[in-house]
What does this fold into?
Amino acid sequence: MSVRLDLPIDEPEFLPVETQILANLLDKHEQYVCQGRDLEARAMARAAHIVWTGLKGSFGDTQPSEWSGL
It folds into this structure.
């Protein structure tokens, strides 16, 4: 069973440093999954997707923060 997120990080428009940052996020996600740290793994998955979509130029926050709720 593979726990690696299926996120294409070798996109031609990404700089090598951007690809490495994404790889580090995916590695950390995989580490947390293997350790049974579900909340941390979910956070890393979300972070990886946020960075990936940001680099692709298509990030749109679907859950805006509301300061009044804090």
